[in-house]
Amino acid sequence: MFQSLMYQLSDMKNIEQPDAITEAACRWLQSGGLPGTYTGPDTSTAHDLQPLLAREMDRRNISMSAAAAWFRLEQIVRPVLELISREGMKLWAVKGFDLARSVYPFPGGRPMCDADLFVEDSNRQKILSIFARSGWSRGSPGDGIFNAGIVSEMKLYRQGVMVELHTHIFYFPATFPGRLPADLFENGRLLEPGLMGFAWHNALLMVLLHMLTNIYIRPVWWVDICLLCTKVSKAGTWAEFARNAFETNLGSSLAHHLRIASSALGAPVPERVMKVLGISNRSREGVIERLKTGRKVPTLLNLRYMTGWRRISWLYALFWLVLTGQHPLRRK
Questions:
Q1: HEC-encoded secondary structure of 76-101
Q2: 43 and 57 in contact (C-beta within 8 Å)?
Q3: What Rg, from alpha-carbon coordinates, does the chain have?
Q4: Average pLDDT over every residue of 236-251
């Protein structure tokens, strides 16, 4: 219980630059990703983009394994999505579970170990009930603090597959310095019955915000951003992206990531978007810096920024954990 309470944020002054393989993979995908046309460096079997480039390296076993893993994940999750659709509701795929089928040349090319799904607050309890009736078991952090909105993530398990159900892109929503897009659950893309994808400008924003919450930046996240920038450009919704990104009060940090994607990967990011975000007020971004100062700081800052009964509930939960000797700050 509470094993996911360790909240990590990237060191935005030392963002890991995309490596040569990532740069070459982005060039290959932007040129169409045709079989046999990748000209970049060979990938090691440990590289994050190995599933994407396995066919180009003639490593059929890795390619087939990645395709099988995607197929298994999709087939185990699909029945619960069908039940949710019959009840007139839907979930929203974010990151890999959306992008694997939406922007990559084949689903197995986008590595992932779980499915990240957003749920609207009004449907949270009904959808949790459907998962339970479908044989899914609940993991951390426990119903209480998830249902109260103190944390934003519930892990669900079935047959070795994990679904992470989210209500916010930050694990501790109270620490988020701005606000999520007002149109987050609007103009979505139908992926399959019961499952939607965010509009392209919001899909890009969610991936970028997720990157801010991680110390280590995976190569595949840079590829996600590069491909999503192309989608936003084709949709003509950079103005909507800039508006929503500005309202997060994390514009400067987001612009920094976009500039790396533009300069190193050739992502089609308009200069005016980076300039607008780059000059946004950085005073609210100080919470990000404080969250990076120590392992216990995120938990305490969550207490600091919550108000009313949620603060009292979180204080009680922390007190209980201390008494029982559990370690809420460790995240697997």
A1: HHHHHHHHHHHCCCCEEEECHHHHHH
A2: yes
A3: 20
A4: 96
What lies within 8 Å, CB to CB, of 53 at 6+ separation is 21, 25, 38, 43
Say which amino acid occupies 186.
Answer: E
Residue pair 18/264 in contact by the 8 Å Cβ criterion: yes
For residues 180 and 169, the answer to whether their CB atoms sit within 8 Å is yes
CATH topology of domain 20-324: Beta Polymerase; domain 2 (3.30.460)
The pLDDT tens digits of the residues spanning 73-128 come to: 999 999 999 999 999 999 999 999 999 999 999 989 998 889 999 999 999 999 99
Query: In 2-59, which residue ranges form alpha helices assigned H by DSSP?
Result: 20-30, 50-53
* Nearest Cα to Cα of residue 192 among 262, 125, 92, 61: 92
Stretch (H or E) spanning 195: strand 195-197
pTM of whole model > 0.85?
yes
Q: CA angle, corner 100, sides to 70 and 108, nearest 5? A: 40
Domain ranges in the chain are: 20-324
| Type and span of the H or E element at 247 | helix 238-247
Q: What is the DSSP string of 146-193?
A: HHTTSS-EEEEEETTEEEEEESSSSSSGGG-SS---TTTTSS-EEEET
Residue 196: enclosing H or E segment and its boundaries? Answer: strand 195-197
Residue 142 has pLDDT above 70, yes or no: no
